[in-house]
Design a protein that fits this description.
single chain; Protein-Tyrosine Phosphatase, Chain A; 46% helix; 7 helices; six-stranded mixed sheet; 192 residues; alpha/beta
């Protein structure tokens, strides 16, 4: 079998890929699936999950992850601790009111230096000021910005080249923020 690699980040994705591979090999072994080693390797390499530990920019490093529940926040937290122990991390975040807001905030916000809160484009979106109020006790630099475009631009401009900006809290938020961020970066390149 060729060497196997995956492009998705996080130890949980390695575990998921291993389970998928073992399932395919078992199905093949029992004659229930015809698939070559090369197809297995290619499928694992090409698998991608948009908005899950997805890198959008390198300097500063911008990662989006739709962590909107406690389990997702714990996976994101462990990834950040494992991969960026010596780098300053900033968060741009928005959440929906039907999620475990305090669980997600208490898991992720202690890692952040600067915390930017905005509103996801969804009627269930929590007001950014409400999110900011819930983390006042952490003693961080906190911004509540209603406009997502302004929040993305502000967070990016306040993140140094050697720092990490994590955009998270809602799949709605990371999808819209990705579009805004990529447009902003394109405008920056054109202006240079």
């Amino acid at each position: 079998m060729p060497q196997l690699t995956i492009r998705m980040m996080g130890s949980h994705q390695t575990n998921n890929a291993s389970l998928a591979l073992l399932t395919m090999l078992a199905l093949r072994h029992h004659g229930l699936l015809e698939i070559s080693d090369e197809a297995l390797a290619s499928g694992l390499q090409q698998s991608f999950w948009a908005g899950r530990l997805e890198v959008l920019h390198q300097s500063p490093l911008v990662i989006i992850d739709g962590a909107h529940n406690l389990q997702g926040a714990q996976i994101l937290q462990q990834f950040l601790v494992d991969h960026f122990p010596d780098r300053k991390i900033h968060f741009l975040m928005g959440m929906l009111n039907n999620k475990d807001i305090s669980g997600v905030l208490n898991t992720l916000m202690p890692l952040g230096q600067k915390l930017f809160f905005t509103r996801a484009n969804n009627p269930k979106a929590v007001n950014p000021e409400t999110l900011a109020e819930q983390v006042q006790l952490f003693g961080k630099e906190i911004y509540a910005i209603d406009s997502m475009a302004e929040a993305v631009e502000t967070a990016l401009m306040q993140t140094a080249a050697d720092e990490v900006l994590v955009i998270t809290g809602s799949l709605y938020l990371v999808g819209d923020a990705k579009t805004i961020l990529l447009q902003f970066l394109d405008q920056q390149r054109e202006a240079s």
